[in-house]
Amino acid sequence: MNDPSVTGGASPGQDDAVSDRARRLASIPSFQRIDAFLNESDYARRHLMPGACDFTLGNPHQMPAERYVRTLRDALTPQHDQWFAYQTNGKASREAAAESLHRLLAVPFRSEDIYLTTGGFAAIALALKTVADPGDEVIYSLPPWFLYEPLVLEAGLVPVKVKIDTMTFDLDLGAIEAAITERTRVVIVNSPNNPTGRIYPPELLRRLADLLEAASARIGRRIYLVSDEPYNRIVFDGLRFHSPAEFYPHTLLAYSYGKTHLSPGERVGYLALPPTIPHRDEMSHAITALQVAMGWVYPNGLLQHALPELEEFSIDVSQLQRRRDRLADALGSMGYRVRLPEGTFYLYIPTPIPDDEAFTASLARRDVFVLPASCSKPRASSGCPSLRTRT
Amino acid sequence: MNDPSVTGGASPGQDDAVSDRARRLASIPSFQRIDAFLNESDYARRHLMPGACDFTLGNPHQMPAERYVRTLRDALTPQHDQWFAYQTNGKASREAAAESLHRLLAVPFRSEDIYLTTGGFAAIALALKTVADPGDEVIYSLPPWFLYEPLVLEAGLVPVKVKIDTMTFDLDLGAIEAAITERTRVVIVNSPNNPTGRIYPPELLRRLADLLEAASARIGRRIYLVSDEPYNRIVFDGLRFHSPAEFYPHTLLAYSYGKTHLSPGERVGYLALPPTIPHRDEMSHAITALQVAMGWVYPNGLLQHALPELEEFSIDVSQLQRRRDRLADALGSMGYRVRLPEGTFYLYIPTPIPDDEAFTASLARRDVFVLPASCSKPRASSGCPSLRTRT
């Protein structure tokens, strides 16, 4: 469609019906693969059928918790005439989120540094647009959450992908350092990690902070860290989660309640700034302008009314841990090389044959649905054929 | 902060803590004025106090309708384990929206051409990004809805503002034609209009369609029309609303349920393509990619479960019409020059003194809160000092 000689460029609309940016987004290979998988595959046709085993997305596997439904029902009863009026950064929601984050991370987050969003996607997009301009580079590690790329490209930014340490599933700090250029503005860190389940240890995060501090000085421009941590409460074996925000003050922390509540269709999350971040007033003006200009990305009133109560609610993490163990034991006994995840809902394991798409397709023919690793990285560089399965 | 000599540019983060784009958005004059009005004015301090008369935003003036609350409560009861799972363009919601739009406009909208969003802001932003690339120009008429400018700028586009006919409140087609350049990609039309309450007549829309068809041919590139019509069901005096989508096939129709339901805090709306639009497949791929990449702008599951039922619900428009009449009569008898709005919730009337901000501030000291027209246009060009009051 881009060659005017084919379509006759004289007639308006023939060769540019949509914007270049939309066309580019629609043609991201990993995005096309996940779209085909979700809409045109055996999965699309059969995952809701009786007997199908759906281990793909972070969706529920059982009925919603009674407490979750009851809390929303209570919050639905109007207490005044502005109950369903426009909502922005509601005070009670901000306070509940800040207190909870303070308890989790031992960092005294302030309620006015919590910016409420329609979930994690919007919090990440908000963070990127707050600090980065078109052409700036964003570093993240492979295998990534498969939707960083569309978010980064929609913001006009340049994705720079580095490998993780495939033995430990840790960040490869050498690879990150080597990828930094004068255009680097953001490094995205996702811990507990989707898909590996790895929680990055505090020593690693401290070394990353030192690295970013030195690199910022070297390039003469601040490199921000966006910490994407929707699984920071889905942690196993009594481990303690540490956020990059504890080590690097220039961290924007993106959180979604969709995992803790296992209700990703009810969109609520936030972007949080640590109290140590410099230039808080300028950041605040930037973020609040973007919350409106990006399309009013505030969570719905009902969820805000419920949030102080919902902050106390979580799915049963010990049950998730038992499911992880059961699945890992079974797969291990079949000969799969399983590295136990420390958090999240996922197992990330090498496939027994090199073509992970062919392998997951063969499972799909048996009504067992898992995601091939190629859904989250460029096909050509798929040096570590793997699959991701929801536990 | 932009002068490195002031802050010492050597230390990273001193002079570029936030992105240029965020800084530009935060400094839009009309945006700053509305922000100051909402957060730092007499309005901010007193609009919720007993006796205060709040005629500013499109927020409720009475308790939520029982039917609205009951419908949401019914939709909250889970019918299966995926009740709160990720939602995209839900089939039942699309069908209900398409049927309703078909009844309203006598255009046979197809359910697969309805793209569900978190309200009107997201629908407009989605429309702009689907067809326009950074640097493209977007024409809209003054006085505009005061948040077009942030949405247009966030999309990297260039706002081009033209005057309306201040006698009839109609679009000034000559002004629109004169504003078209080779970079023009979108004309936004808002009918029924916020703030004037004008419904553009079908003859005017047909002439606009002819104008845009001819201009597209002249510049060799399709000019799209974005029809922002959240008030298309808030219409008085038995008038019939006509959408630009009936006359110009290259129309993207943005709708929000926030006005019809008077619940702008529960975000749900859509972007609809008329069945006559060319290149539907390419548009569909572009829009669905953007719905994810813009930050998962789909409405929450609860609202989607409720939508087929909520499509049948509306606030009482005849009551709104009686309120319009009462307010217009009272203002007219005091000597205000009132032009009766044909739809929406607003009256847009000249202020008795030239400084509309000073005038609305004097009303605010008496606890009567209305918006000065300068909130929606650059101060310098405020040739028609007016105020907008919610009826």
Helix content bin of chain A: 25-40%
What CATH architecture label of the largest domain in chain A applies? Answer: 3-Layer(aba) Sandwich
The SSE string of chain A, one letter per element, is HHHHEHHEHEHEHEHEEEHHHEHEEE
Instruction: Return the CATH class of the largest domain in chain A.
Output: Alpha Beta
Largest inter-chain contact set: A-B, 98 and 98 residues
Q: How is the CATH topology of the largest domain in chain A named?
A: Aspartate Aminotransferase, domain 2
Largest sheet of chain A: 7 strands, mixed
How would you portray this structure in words?
- The structure is a homodimer of 391-residue chains.
- Chain A folds into two domains: 4-63 and 316-390, Aspartate Aminotransferase, domain 1 (Alpha-Beta Complex); 85-310, Aspartate Aminotransferase, domain 2.
- Helices cover 38% and strands 14% of the residues of chain A.
- Chain A is built from 14 helices and twelve strands.
- The first copy, chain A, has a seven-stranded mixed sheet, sandwiched between helices. In chain A, strands 9-12-11 form a three-stranded antiparallel sheet.
- The radius of gyration of chain A is 22 Å and the shape is globular.
- The model of chain A is unreliable at 1-10 and 378-383 (pLDDT under 50).
- Chains A and B meet through helix 2, helix 5, helix 7, helix 8 and helix 10 of A and helix 2, helix 5, helix 7, helix 8 and helix 10 of B.
